[in-house]
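Morning!

This is the sequence you dropped in the shared folder:
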Amino acid sequence: MNPLPPAIIILGQNSLPIAKTISAVFPGSQIYGLADRTSDTNITFSNFGETLRELFATETPIIGICAAGILIRTLAPLLSDKRAEPAVLAVAEDGSAVVPLLGGLHGVNDLARQIAAALGVQPAITTTGDIRFRTALLSPPQGYYLANPEDAKTFISNLLAGAKVRLEGKASWLWESNLPTSQPAPTGATPTERIAPAAKLTIRVTEKAIVPTPDCLVYHPQIAAVALTQLSNIQPEIAVSCVHKLLAKTNLAAAAIAGFFALKDEMGNPALEAVSAYFQVPVRFFNQSELVKLNSIEFSENQAAQIALTAAGANSQIVECDRTLALNCAIALATEPIDASAIGVSRGQLAIVGTGPGGAPWMSPEVKQILREATDWVGYKFYLDLAGTLREGQKRHDSDNREEIDRARFALDLAASGKSVAVVSSGDPGIFAMAAAVFEAIDFDAKPEWQGIDIRVAPGISAMQAAAAAIGAPLGHDFCAISLSDILKPWEVIERRISAAAKADLVMAFYNPISKQRIWQLGRAIEILLETRDPKTPVVLGRNLGRPGQSVRVCKLGEFQPEDADMRTLVIVGSSQTRIIPRKYGGDVWVYTPRRYDLSL
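The structure's back. Tokens below.
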């Protein structure tokens, strides 16, 4: 899979020019700035350690414009498996030094060279092999896979001790290196002519499934495009087995597969998802009209062959086409490694996320990652503003807050075209928000192209949770949530629910209590509550939760007036058990509802 773009961390405004220079080198990268000390960054953070460890855990490359020591101390508790470590680099605030720290197996030295070139300095690379040979044998470039990394350390040590190596196969990054071949390549030599007969070590580049040995490093170029069709009745495990059989038949290494390819109407097919997950390569999709025309009589009516050749590109060739398996398979080999991300479209993704009631500090790590990786953000303008700043290449689609169903349909159509879409709600998306609108659109419109979308809901901190936490624990016992908006349901239904909840002695959280168009409903709700609930019942009013101007105050139900609330207010009405505890200083109080229910109250 393609690596994530790096996160560039700055702790002060003086680092911003260097950060922007580095960001220009890496499309999709984002600049993270420490709150109150930086401005004009993509993402603001307040907890350095938490942010850094979160990025590290998601395998995001980290470029810290700060002292190396602070990065090392922060990440040290997480270091256990060097194969799982993303690239981590320290860059001096003035750009005078670029120091790779972690991620040797994930191209950290190459990143250091790119950054150093942009800043006009020399990278502080300490890996002896990289320095002497001008190539990283442990970390081959994108499109190549090292089959026996466990042998590489000893292999490189032998090279450094003076052993010679023979190069076999086609890979410019090896031919152009300073590896010690036993004889120089003649001028104008082809790759197969660059041979050192006396060499005891060998580097072989091949798509074939060969058994590596300690004195032979094997690199598999990802040049195989595997096309699959006729998948409708294929079990996922059968699809994986079929691909294995096809590889064995052609003697191709699994690591040579660049991607699986199919037609768009197969999006979401579990068999494709299974082979993608098993072989850890992407699935990409074509329209029928995008397929190349075949002149060969042998393959002219074979759709899998068409798909494979379309994916592998010019001068590619079919090496296997099998209709005898449970599904139709074809493999085409390209002349160079295939960048699957640039071919066709991916399976559309739609994530409905909750940003919490406020900005970035209220968002879960899952939501932050979804927003980072999405190609498109869809939502009400105010909520998109809370979500943060888009990185380069992302698109934002604003709409009016009253257009939920149209917004859901738009997002679904966007995802069906292969985009990765984040539908942004404040609070929790499943509580009076966009998750229900998306599923409502799917249910009632039933568009076939939406069936293949990968849909997920990422929860957020709800407004009632935020208000409760700010004042204590008023939701500590049974409670319910009721929206006072009668736009989508009759007021008679709302009245019945308020009355039933009041008689059941539930704590109630009121969403959408009042607006410019709905000014009488809250007053009527108060009247219904006072029919059964003590006027001294505590009422919590949380306004602009998590945002500038936040306020949380407490009053008694008998004193509560509709004008005390607005559309940005969350109202919590206590039960008969809800209690108030005065605080020692400032006249403030705590409000909580005991876990035990006392019938004598």
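Headline: The chain has a mean pLDDT of 89.

More detail when I'm at my desk.
O.
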